[in-house]
């Protein structure tokens, strides 16, 4: 049978899981980018990991398959299961366990020749023994040394290898919190598996779990940032499905507190500006050269941050910065409104005019990013101004349309 729940290329299953969960509600015939056989294999894989969350809906166009996960009830991110199903060859898994059995103690330190001899002796006990040559063993040792699992030591002219010491996992509550809220939180989930501690003391009102699908992308980006390198990004345009490739200098990752979306803030040498890139639109990351101006670009981004509300670094009105301010009026028993303004103002400022009135103001690159937040105060706004006339007109037109919809429009401001 061709189907296996283990995966070689995570990017493909990442795409299917996003279709099932994030976008959802497609029938089998609508997955036209791959064959029906591929769709069935990937669906079975997802179902083997997340069967408790799979749902089906019959429509005139066919049966739709989707994932239904209530993130308020799922205390541990179920999407991490996909990362724990990576495929391996028979040789890989055999050599892995033999090596770590031979190097069972950190005190045992053996040369490549000694290890190869012991592996041969180990395998001689089997009826049909596998054979691993010295180059294969050396390659595996280098791989594990790069991961920190094996420690090479020079003894004279000979390199010996020993198992790295085991570090005790400390406070599992910290790991539990990290695994659910941090980028690359799957690392914390792996560690929790190691100690078998999945009892949780946390519940999340807003639990953004889909970032798990971008963990590999984020890991590569963080590694490039740490080494101050440029990267070659392969990105997809979700609207038309076109794939683009370009050079960027990754500077930081910003995560939306409203949607959980993750954005890479990167410098584009081609366009000579800092721009956001959604991480779920990044297909691959290839490390480039060390970028000499990395620190200068990071300082430039830091200087821009006081005027970035979300991720936009460009003004749509042509102005360098756009000004927005609005005044809210609240009752004596609604002091929490002032608290919200202070807590959520980000790069803006809040001025208290009297015991029941406050004014918010900000100078940002793109004032349209603030509009969804402003709408949450709409019943208490007494005055509002945008330096971008088109945006102000659009905001007021939306209010008018809403009033007309509810039969409240009287034709006056």
Structure commentary:
With 413 residues, this protein is of the alpha+beta class. The chain is built from 12 helices and 15 strands. The longest helix has 17 residues, at 389-405. The radius of gyration is 27 Å and the shape is elongated. The N and C termini lie far apart (69 Å). The mean pLDDT is 86.
Helix/sheet category: alpha+beta
Shape: elongated
Major sheet description: 5 strands, antiparallel
**Helix proportion range:** 25-40%
Distance between the termini: 69 Å
List how many beta strands DSSP finds: 15
Q: How much strand content do the residues show?
A: 15-25%
Radius of gyration: 27 Å
Tell me the series of helices and strands, N- to C-terminal: HEHEEHEHHEEHHHEEEEEHEHEEHEH
Which residue ranges are poorly predicted, with pLDDT under 50 across at least 5 consecutive positions? none
- The tally of helices reads 12
Order of the strands making up the biggest sheet? 10-9-8-7-11
Mean pLDDT: 86
């Amino acid at each position: 049978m061709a189907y296996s729940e283990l995966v070689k290329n995570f990017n493909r299953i990442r795409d299917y899981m996003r279709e099932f969960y994030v976008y959802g509600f497609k029938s089998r015939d609508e997955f036209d980018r791959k064959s029906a056989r591929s769709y069935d294999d990937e669906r079975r894989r997802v179902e083997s990991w997340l069967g408790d969350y799979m749902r089906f809906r019959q429509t005139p166009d066919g049966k739709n398959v989707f994932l239904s996960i209530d993130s308020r009830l799922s205390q541990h991110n179920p999407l991490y299961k996909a990362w724990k199903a990576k495929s391996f060859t028979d040789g890989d898994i055999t050599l892995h366990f033999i090596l770590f059995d031979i190097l069972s103690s950190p005190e045992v330190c053996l040369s490549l020749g000694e290890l190869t001899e012991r592996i041969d002796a180990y395998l001689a006990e089997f009826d049909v023994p596998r054979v691993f040559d010295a180059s294969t063993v050396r390659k595996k040792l280098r791989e594990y040394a790069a991961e920190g699992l094996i420690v090479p030591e020079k003894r004279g002219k000979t390199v010996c290898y020993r198992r790295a010491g085991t570090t005790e996992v400390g406070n599992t509550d910290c790991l539990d919190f990290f695994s659910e809220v941090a980028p690359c939180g799957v690392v914390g989930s792996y560690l929790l598996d190691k100690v078998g501690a999945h009892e949780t003391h946390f519940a999340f009102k807003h639990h953004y779990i889909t970032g798990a699908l971008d963990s590999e992308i984020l890991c590569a980006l963080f590694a490039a940032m740490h080494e101050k390198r440029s990267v070659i990004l392969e990105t997809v345009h979700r609207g038309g499905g076109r794939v683009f490739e370009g050079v960027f200098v990754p500077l930081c990752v910003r995560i939306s507190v409203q949607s959980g979306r993750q954005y890479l803030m990167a410098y584009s040498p081609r366009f000579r500006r800092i721009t956001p890139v959604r991480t779920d639109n990044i297909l691959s990351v290839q490390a480039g050269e060390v970028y000499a101006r990395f620190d200068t670009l990071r300082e430039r981004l830091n200087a821009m941050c006081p005027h970035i509300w979300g991720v936009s670094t460009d003004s749509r009105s042509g102005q360098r910065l756009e000004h927005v301010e609005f005044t809210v009026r609240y009752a004596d028993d609604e002091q929490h409104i002032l608290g919200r303004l202070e807590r959520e103002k980000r790069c803006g400022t809040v001025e208290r005019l009297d015991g029941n009135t406050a004014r918010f103001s900000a100078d940002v690159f793109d004032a349209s990013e603030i509009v969804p937040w402003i709408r949450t105060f709409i019943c208490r706004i007494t005055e509002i101004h945008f330096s971008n006339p088109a945006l102000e007109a659009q905001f007021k037109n939306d209010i008018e349309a809403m009033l007309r919809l509810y039969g409240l429009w009287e034709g006056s401001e």
